[in-house]
From TrEMBL:
Domain of life: Bacteria
Entry protein name: Tocopherol O-methyltransferase
One Pfam match: Methyltransf_11
Region of interest called SAM motif I, as start-end residue ranges on this chain: 73-82
Region (SAM motif III): 163-172
Occurrences of domain Polyketide synthase-like methyltransferase (ranges): 39-290
Stretch list, region SAM motif II: 136-144
Organism of this sequence: Kitasatospora gansuensis
The protein's enzyme class: transferase
Family under the similarity heading: Belongs to the class I-like SAM-binding methyltransferase superfamily. gTMT family.
Amino acid sequence: MEPTIGSGLNTAVERYYDITLDLYEDLWGEHVHHGFWDPGEVPGPDGADRHAATDRLVRELVDYAAVPAGSRVLDVGCGIGGPALHLAGALGCTVEGVTLSARQAARANEKARAAGVAERARFHQLDALGTGYPDESFGVVWALESLMHIADRQGFFAEALRLLGPGGTLAVATWSVRDGELDEDERELVRQILLHQVMPDFSSLEEHERLARAAGFTDVATVDWSGAVANSWDPGFAQIREFERGPAAMRDLARERGVDVLGFFHAGPLMKKGFDTGVITYGALRATKPRPDSRPER
């Protein structure tokens, strides 16, 4: 399959993850996403439990969406393959991962070979809204922290419905925004986060649920995991070693990769403020493609 990368946003997202791939892997390991902690749990000061927490987030989404073992899965925004390797390994799923970043796809394929699951986990540079897969190709569409980069979220839910077989499962975990009107300072905070993370906008969890129902999904449910994932941005835990090297190192990195790379370093304090103030939220959504003989939800 050939890439269908075209829009300005897609190109910007592709570039962002190409130039930050090693930074994310250095900080977060194979999982380019939040971790999950129990209430009151405090991360270790050396960050040693980050991998356990990011692994746990994958398991929590598997459990919440009741992802069936052995499913054929489309992993939308697969990153460097961390969640897909769990799905292909522990659950015995067959996974097709898609990402806008050629470097991410290549690294994910390397990791699949090293993990011995290359026959069940393959990764491609493709636009999630134009993959070319036939109707009803998958039993599960999985989107862990990728929907924020997709401007046409209505289109995403419609495409997920098309790709799922009857009774198939949609599993989403996503950054989101508090439902309702934001004041001027809150809107500016959101604007800064979107700018540095190369995202078009945020939707609330409630809006995600409305879009899923409007697309034709049934059994739609959401859960707010904001409190469980907020530790991911704790300044004493989310250490980025380059910060300790001083301004000169930042200038060198910007010269080498372009100023866009600096958005990676600005994200932490902004996201922490977003979670602390309740402006930024985080949640999961599960939904089912109805079978032909099922009645639509009212």
